[in-house]
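Appendix C reproduces, verbatim, an entry submitted by the partner laboratory led by Prof. M.T., so that reviewers can inspect both the input and the predicted structure.
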Amino acid sequence: ELQQKLEETELLKMELQMLETERVRLSLVEEKLMDVLQLLQQLQDLNISKRALGKILLSTLESCRDPQPGKAHLFEVLDTLYHELTACELLQSQPLEKVQSRPSLSNPLVISC
């Protein structure tokens, strides 16, 4: 019975470690998603055209068509989209202070359309 309890304890420790790893992964995805949403909000404020935004999105999807081995596909897509958005000429032409001083979203999951 003691051996069985030790085995159960080990299994629970492994499960806890897996849950912690997943929590960290989800936290990283959430951070990247927030960064992307803030960039999209900035571009909306700068009146980016739907065509230009569509090109950015299509470029991102094309870049991420084949997932990289060992890399979470969702995070890869968000990271690529983030880099595509930061390379947008509208954001590049803005003074650095204006882009950085942008207030954070009041509700991180809501973007007015």
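DSSP finds five helices and no strands in the chain. Additional entries are available on request from the coordinating office.
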